[in-house]
Amino acid sequence: DNGGDGGTITVTKTKPRVKRPSLYRVLLLNDDYTPMEFVIHVVERFFHKSREDATRIMLHVHHHGVGECGVFTYEVAETKVTQVMDFARKHQHPLQCVMEKK
Ligand code: TYC
Description:
The protein is α+β, with helices and mostly antiparallel strands. The protein is built from three helices and three strands. It has helices at 36-47, 51-64, 74-90, and strands at residues 23-29, 66-73, 96-101. It is elongated and about 75 Å long.
């Protein structure tokens, strides 16, 4: 840049700084009442999993108490949690969905 006064030209180099966003796991929690078929549907619908993968995830949660449906940036993870919780409440199931920082 030439300051405009006919003086010295200054060239400033800024290194491109890239920062990776923090990632969050979205988890489903087991309970005794939500039907298995409903959980499979939730995993298919909100996490875009195949019927086979959704069934595996549901059974993992059923047997281990908690299981991962996906890993997302903060805002996307928050949206998934809200969508699942709203959908479960609408259908009067106690299904719980939470997010945790990786
Ligand atoms: N434990 C439930 C049942 O036996 C099924 C279930 C699986 C519920 C996963 C919630 O996140 C869950 N009907």
